[in-house]
Amino acid sequence: MVGLLDIPVEIMQAILACLPADSLLDLSPTCCLLNHLSTSALLEHHGIRDPTNCTFDLYNDTPGTPSKADALSALLAGLHIKRMKFLQCNLKTSWYWGGGWPASQPLRRLHRLIQRLSSIDEVVLSFDIYGAIVLDDADLKSGIDILQNLLNMIITKSCKVLRIINPASFFEKSYIFNQPDSRSSITQTFRRFVHRNDSPDWQYKRDNSKGTRLFLTCSPAALQKVALTEIEIDAISLFTPPCSNWTFTMLKQSRVKTLTVSLTWPESGYTPAERSLILSRLVAAVPASVKFLRVVKVTHILETLGFIAQLPLLDTLDFCPWPWQVGLLDESTTTSFPIVLNMKTMCSTAEMLFFMFSRPLTAPRLREIFLAFHIYKEEMFNITTTATSIARLRDSVGPMVDILPAVFMDSVPPPMESLCDGIQPICPIWEQEFSKFTAVMLVGQITLLDSPNTFRIILGVLTLFSGISGLLIKLRPSPKVDPTPIHLEPWMVRAILNRSPNITSIVFNKVAQRIIS
Q1: What is the residue extent of each domain of the chain?
Q2: What pLDDT does residue 209 have?
Q3: Could you tell me the superkingdom of the organism this chain comes from (predicted)?
Q4: Within its chain, how far is the Cα of 278 from the centroid?
């Protein structure tokens, strides 16, 4: 008789593709071959073709309900998955009364997966925890143990890149910053003495001074095996108790080269004294190996610049202050203090750089500026005003600094329709400044190459820069395009040269393109 496993693998795969997710998970313990085939089919059911490179959503299951055959279940069941190149877990959960720390159950499952792997190159943990309650000691300790065990396990698996993205707080309202007060110096001195073993977190107390002071710790095994070269911390709660002890200890021990931090301070809850304490601890924790610093979602620009000025070994600063508005969240009294930045390259939005260099700021080592412009669906930057600001910026930084415009685009706004047709605005002020640029970088979605109609936006931007000889195009991949192309079509190259005949170099997604005469 012919057995089930004697059927060709291609036929088995076709059969398994017809089974529901729960049946595929039930089939995984049968044997090694069926384990490989069923878990691969289950992962593909969730849109994952490569088990070593996957992104999945993880929801907090209600206690008492059976576990579903989600993507993490397939990864846990797959015996052939020994190492991973990239893993992104998007955890979505809510606080609920009487249920403990809401992320406990899904993070335990994720910890089991990481523990089973021999190595993992990059991990992205995205948290969406909404709602807020005050945890008691038992729930707080349980949550701390689960989170620290997961983070320590990730580091021991030779992880090179770690990104923690969390718009809210991990342990909401568990600790409160104790505002320094000159009238209570005796009390402050006493608290410093009592909590000297966990300084400088002595300035934080449990909610209403109740409960035990519990903190995450970075294990000795993690400190010995830390191999991180890039870290992204998009969560202020990682800089405050109970997480701050783990974060700052890990940073000090690492040899990170690229660091990304989010400095979005909520309108309420963080006083100037607490912000100053966190930034001073961050300065002390950033290792000398960090050469590239990316700061995102800035709300207090002058405080942030003061923090950056204390990192003299930086080579590149990338500023992405998306929610920031000029002057709205900064005290005017701080503008009189001179700020010295030591990096060689700066990347930021045009509005941000115009604001920075209008203050008492100097950058003696600066040699290159990437000036970012963002074109949105319904609006475009004012060309005349921008040209005036560029002229002032050139005067501020001097002739030794090269300025390269970087235009971020996704669609054609109505004010840009005439530019797409090659019609330049009639205004000698902007043309004099824009013609000085010798190169330009265009950034957008790969869908801009779908048709001549979508490609028009690239040609429209080129209309503004008549003097460029170099063109750099960086287009982000799209799920609809697999794989991402690395070469432009010949008609695209010809259209670019027709619009900008002085171009002698075109680089598309890091690949030099052939220039057709």
Answers
A1: 1-45, 51-61+70-256, 367-517
A2: 63
A3: Eukaryota
A4: 20
The answer to whether the Cα torsion of 105, 111, 112, 113 is positive or negative is positive
Amino acid letter for position 199 = S
Token readout for 351 is: 């509005």
CA distances from 278 to 222, 237, 248, 452 (A): 23, 11, 10, 50
Residue 202 tokens read as 């002595």
Classify 467 as helix, strand or coil. Answer: coil
Q: Which residues contact 216 (CB under 8 A, 6 or more apart)?
A: 144, 147, 148, 151, 242, 243, 245, 246
φ/ψ of residue 181, rounded to 5? -145, 125
Angle made by CA atoms 11, 15, 16, in degrees to the nearest 5: 115
Is residue 367 within 8 Å of residue 403, measured between CB atoms?
Answer: no
Compute the 3-state secondary structure of the chain and give helix, strand, coil in percent, each to the nearest 5.
40, 20, 40
Q: Nearest 5 degrees, angle CA 287-CA 290-CA 295?
A: 110
Task: Establish how many alpha carbons lie within 13 A of residue 158's alpha carbon, considering only the half-sphere containing its beta carbon.
Answer: 8
pLDDT confidence of residue 378? 65
Whether residue 264 contacts residue 298, with contact meaning beta carbons closer than 8 Å, is answered with: yes
Three-class SS of residue 84? strand
Q: Which residues of 68-85 are buried (b: 16+ CB within 10 A; e: fewer)?
A: ebbbbbbbbbbeebeebe
Task: Collect the ranges in the chain with pLDDT lower than 70.
Answer: 1-2, 61-67, 95-99, 131-133, 167, 180-200, 208-210, 267-268, 321-337, 377-379, 478-484, 517
CA distance 125 to 121: 13
At residue 516, the pLDDT reads 72
Q: What is the pLDDT of residues 187-206, one digit of tens each?
A: 555 455 445 554 567 788 88
d(CA 377, CA 256): 37
Element (H, E) at 23: helix 21-27
What type of residue sits at position 416? M
3-class state of residue 98 by DSSP: coil
**3-state class (DSSP) for residue 180:** coil
Query: DSSP class of residue 122?
Result: E
pLDDT at residue 327 in the model:
43
Which residue carries 């249920």 as its tokens?
Answer: 99
pTM score, two decimals? Answer: 0.85
SS3 450: coil
Helices (H) and strands (E) in the chain, counts: 17, 19
Q: Are 206 and 240 in contact (CB under 8 A)?
A: no
Element at 490 (helix H, strand E): helix 490-499
Query: What is the C-alpha R_g of the chain?
Result: 27
Tokens of 143: 């949550």
Question: What is the secondary structure of 353-389 as a DSSP string?
Answer: HHHHTTSSEE-TT--EEEEEEE--SS----HHHHHHH
Distance of CA 46 to the CA centre of its chain: 24
Report the DSSP pairing between strands 175-177 and 204-206: antiparallel
What pLDDT, on the 0 to 100 scale, is given for residue 65? 46
